[in-house]
């Protein structure tokens, strides 16, 4: 292996602050969702379902959208199905697999949680950014996602 | 409650790309550490220990530094102790509690994993940023961390 390409001081400082920010943001958002009776994993699934046509998605589409592996999604779906937030619709004649449907209960759950979630995202993140910083962050995220996609199949 | 302050389209686009980037980065970095035989949680503990004077830290300092709660840290420490990566030193006369020490084995583990970790962080993130973007990210992270700190005791 060639010489390690360590981060310099400026990069290191950024990387640590960035990681620290993400960890604290996750914690703050997790607490807010917890007050609304949802976990971050619940929320990750409810959002795309609530936005899908007919509030239905194939398991495969859902998995790709949120980047989880099959077993994690299956486990999470079982829990949410037991709580009545989602329902599974098997399509016997359709090899493309299970369709997940948001229930009325699931819709109510996300509609109740969403305003507080948006407020938290604003208060602790978005409202602290200038428009220019927002565009910079979008550009950075798109660039990183392209690099990761180019390096191989998307994780998970 | 007042009207929900939803994100506008530009903010929403940024927020989703940002979250997506973080999730993919976590996955990429997790796989790299996995190849080195460590979990992200192992690495989070090994880094501050390897940098501490005498490679020792009090459990409380360690916990504050990484922002975990007591039970998560205790659980993680037990696992790492069993694998010989860290050792606990109880100080009978000292009410300030347990001291965690990095073992020779733990030092070897982080020394082996660190170059690949740095390379991954560079390849998928840092090398894709301009110096100006690095400074912008540092400024944003510091601002967000100040807001979260001002809003209450740090999470976890």
Automatic annotation (TrEMBL), chains A, B:
This is MarR family transcriptional regulator. It comes from Streptosporangium fragile. Residues 11-146 form the HTH marR-type domain. It comes from the Bacteria. Pfam families: MarR_2.
């Amino acid at each position: 292996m060639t010489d390690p390409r360590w981060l310099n001081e400026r990069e290191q400082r950024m990387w640590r602050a960035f990681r620290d920010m993400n960890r604290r943001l996750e914690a703050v958002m997790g607490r807010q969702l917890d007050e609304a009776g949802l976990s971050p994993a619940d929320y990750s699934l409810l959002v795309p379902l609530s936005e899908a046509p007919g509030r239905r998605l194939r398991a495969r589409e859902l998995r790709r959208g949120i980047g989880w592996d099959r077993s994690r999604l299956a486990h999470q779906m079982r829990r949410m199905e037991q709580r009545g937030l989602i329902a599974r619709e098997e399509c016997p004649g359709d090899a493309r697999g299970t369709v997940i449907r948001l229930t009325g209960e699931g819709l109510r759950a996300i509609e109740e949680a969403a305003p507080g979630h948006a407020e938290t995202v604003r208060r602790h993140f978005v409202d602290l950014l200038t428009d220019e910083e927002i565009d910079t962050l979008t550009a950075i995220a798109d660039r990183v996602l392209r690099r990761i996609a180019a390096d191989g199949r998307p994780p998970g």
